[in-house]
Design goal:
Layout: H1 53-63, E1 70-73, H2 75-87, E2 94-99, H3 104-111, E3 115-120, H4 131-139, E4 144-150, H5 162-171, E5 177-181, E6 203-208, E7 221-224, H6 227-235, H7 244-254, H8 259-282, E8 286-290, E9 296-301, H9 305-311, E10 317-318, H10 320-323, E11 328-332, H11 336-357
Parallel strand pairs: 2-3, 2-4, 4-5, 5-6
Antiparallel strand pairs: 1-7, 6-7, 8-9, 9-11, 10-11
Helix pairs in contact: 2-3
Length: about 350
């Protein structure tokens, strides 16, 4: 049923047939205009598979979905861009997302000439989503093709429950596609919305290896959805999105021997997040610290802490342009020593303020 939402000019679109897409086998490769000499000694003279079979299998197992329900992309950013290109017609369609949320939804919309509407999350409501109100707002924008739900949401850290995601999918059936961006879900301990893929054909889940798997520099993400939608997205995907070096490094990180180490690092980040949240909640420097399911905390300080931290070599993210409040900051959760250093510097700042007041 989701197919009626796809751009009419792309419903019968023929994808570019690259040299690797035919999946031929042979010993003498003369079909892709490649250099026959491997100057790198790593096979970099040959084009990679469009969707490397070994990595597809690995990620499908990791996310507990069928291999045909998954498309590997260059980070989840490319997944966002692909969805807009597939569903949204220039100067005709629209998307909706939260305010505040990840900025690339709006950037991608603006670049492609697509209207962008926002559902405002309120600090006084702990940034929770009022689903009936959200659906009511969507009714006033009948050209919305995609609803982006970042869960855990960046920068507020809160999640939308699976039950509410199902409510959205049912209410928007034949009207819009619900896109759940789970960039930070590994830090939440909650189940993925990918568990609902078989029940709702207008549901898409975005995943990435940039955060909890420490592969931000490799740019590996994926789109998870029903197999037919994945086929449509693959048609408009670049011919060779995953570089051979990226494939090799990613498989090395994802091998079974690395999994216990990865899980231990995630647990460390969660522990440091809770420790820092407890400290900030009790700090006299802080007006409000918001609980988070991601690897970051949103904090409203009472003064200009940003520049004082910067003077000590500690770089955090200003949320001034998002909240129109220069004291609102987002702090990424670092390692044990990094969080200890941050707390020590904040203690010094607090002490200086107390001394000045006296």
């Amino acid at each position: 049923m989701f197919e009626r939402l796809i751009r009419e000019d792309l419903r019968k679109f023929n994808a570019y047939a690259s040299a690797r897409s035919l999946k031929l086998s042979g010993k003498l490769w003369l079909n892709a205009n490649e250099l026959p000499f491997d100057l790198s000694n790593h096979g970099f003279n040959r084009y990679p598979e469009k969707q490397p079979e070994e990595l597809v299998k690995c990620l499908a197992n990791l996310y507990q979905v069928d291999e045909k329900q998954l498309l590997i992309t260059r980070g989840s950013d490319e997944g966002i861009d692909l969805l807009l290109r597939l569903f949204c017609t220039y100067k005709q369609d629209a998307i909706m997302a939260f305010k505040p949320t990840f900025g690339m939804y709006e950037i991608s919309a603006r670049i492609q000439g697509v209207d962008y509407f926002e559902y405002a999350l309120k600090a006084e409501d702990a940034f929770n989503v009022d689903v009936p109100l959200l659906l009511q707002q969507l009714k006033t924008h009948n050209n919305v093709k995609l609803l982006f739900v970042c869960s855990p949401n960046n920068p507020t850290g809160n999640m939308v429950s699976l039950s509410n995601i199902e409510v959205l999918c049912r209410a928007l059936c034949n009207k819009a596609v619900v896109v759940i961006d789970e960039a930070y879900i590994e830090f939440s301990g909650e189940k993925s919305a990918a568990t609902l893929i078989d029940k709702h054909d207008n549901l898409v889940v975005l995943r990435t290896l940039s955060k909890s798997y420490g592969l931000a520099g490799e740019r590996v993400g994926c789109v998870v959805s029903n197999a037919r939608l994945i086929c449509y997205l693959e048609k408009i995907l670049a011919p060779y999105p995953i570089a051979t070096s990226v494939l090799q490094n990613t498989l090395q990180v994802l091998n079974q021997q690395s999994q216990p180490l990865l899980m231990d690092k995630i647990c460390q980040i969660v522990k440091q997040r809770e420790l820092l949240f407890a400290y900030l909640s009790a700090s006299k420097l802080v007006k409000s610290a918001y609980p988070s399911k991601g690897n970051f905390l949103l904090v409203d300080f009472k003064g200009n802490v940003f520049h004082q931290l910067l003077q000590q070599g500690i770089v955090i993210r200003s949320m001034a342009s998002v909240f129109h409040n220069e004291h609102m900051l987002r702090i990424s959760i670092g390692g044990v020593q990094e969080i200890e250093k941050l707390i020590n510097v904040l203690e010094t700042i607090a002490g200086n303020i107390t001394h000045e007041a006296e």
